[in-house]
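Q: I'm writing up a methods section and want to include an example of the input and output format. Could you take the sequence below and give the corresponding predicted structure tokens, formatted cleanly so I can copy it straight into the document?
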Amino acid sequence: MKLDDLKPAEYNPRKITDEKRDKLKESLLKFGDLSGVIFNKATKNLVGGHQRCSAFTENNPEIIIEESFDPPTSKGTIARGHFIIDGEKYSYREVFWEDIKFEQEANIKANLILAEWDTELLKGIGFDKEVLLDFGFEKEFIDSSFIEDDFSDFNNEDEEKKESSGTEKMNTVEIELMPEDKILFEETMDKINIEYQTPVEKTKLGLKLGKLLRKVRDENITC
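A: Here is the clean output for your methods example:
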């Protein structure tokens, strides 16, 4: 079997730009595989796998060396091995990099060259927001990724009044607003002192707050 025989999962929500793919290849050819736990014997520093090690602190497993290299490989590897947690092997790599700047570059690039999330594929898998948060996603990312879904009921709730609605356009996003909602939206936006990256994000925040204000108004909620 070869790499070409491995079929990519169509549902995989991770994506990478051509530029980042080139950077990833460049990093792999310079430092070798930076995944797993990597220890630099020359400086006695942990280069990669800090979070994995902290996650397994209570277990404190013994590292088992499977093969050693003398002289080191072209990427500076002097040993490969593993440690075992609950019957599963986790990779360990030992390098000999005397240049601290080389080590620091490897450490940074191990965390820098990352793929991105294709949010449509991520949502298409079918996990709801609470489950994804439990997986470990940041709430800010999930809220921004699912914001269109959050507004789906808002955009449809006054469908019967659509002919009299106004339209706010920003970039390629078109949002239908009732006249009274437009007033609430404008009043709400006047109260927002937070800067957002794009007009679309600001619009969506205003709509969300406007919807909450209308709910307070319609239900006579007092605070």
